[in-house]
Amino acid sequence: MMEIQQVRAFLTVAEELHFGRAAERLGVLQPPLSRTIRALEDDLGVTLFQRTTRNVKLSPAGEALVEPARKMLEYQSLALDSVQRAATGETGRISFGFARSSSRTLAAGLVTASRRLNPGIVFSLESNVFAEEGLARLIDGTLDLALVRWDRQPPGMTGRPVMIERLCAALPEDHRLARRSSIRVEDLADEEFITLPEHPSSTLRENSMRLCHDAGFTPRLAQAAPDSQTIGALVASGLGVSITFDSVSANTREAGTVAVPLDIPQDPSTLYLAHLSDHAKPSLEAVLALAEEVLPTVA
């Protein structure tokens, strides 16, 4: 197998066609250079140079080797550059999970800014990742970064708050409560509700059900819808109402709907940009540093 040192020596001699000048260029003595070339010829089983006392010229085999040898040095240089850029965080692949209905705008802002500043970092985006799933996948390594909610910070996890979310009611624009500045959950007792399907990683549906029960009624479910966009369309058509986050409403609001804040004794929800504390990934460090500016910490 050809070694890079042998390839470099061969090309220098091929360019100079003089062992003395080639040795001077390489910063070595001529005898070791001659031995390197002879060892390469022995390894390949061919003569690379035709030598006389007066001159040196390439053999047919040597001429055939010149271009491949140059490519080998180019590839070595590319390999070294790629490794060094990866080690400094200039290149890499980041798996980024988020819930598209609530946090896609935040995700888009970070990915776009990273592309401009660090074009060597490539994102793999997953836009249907809810809180519990996101945390589990950060732990098992299938995600590097996620926008998630939690009530208590999981061990080994680092997260910075980047958005505060409050619950609101999505109503048809001609609804009797649509012009209120805020409403109580009990004001919705006679309504039919449109919700997301039950999902073990999504807390929004369960939150809505609990709020209704705490307000003294069991919500009547008109329809389960697969996503927030569909819920918005169904609300606009007058099928029912929905409880959602204000961030979801802002990102997916359908024409013909309004979002009215809920007057509830419940703390707002916090969305965190989360990752493993001991990730040891330079490209992720570069993205996190950029995120400090793109997605500033909220109180």
TrEMBL record:
It holds the Pfam family LysR_substrate. Keywords: DNA-binding, Transcription, Transcription regulation. It comes from the Bacteria. Transmembrane segments: none annotated. One of its GO terms (molecular function) is DNA binding. GO terms for cellular component: protein-DNA complex. The keyword Calcium does not apply. Residues 2-59 form the HTH lysR-type domain. Belongs to the LysR transcriptional regulatory family. This is DNA-binding transcriptional regulator, LysR family.
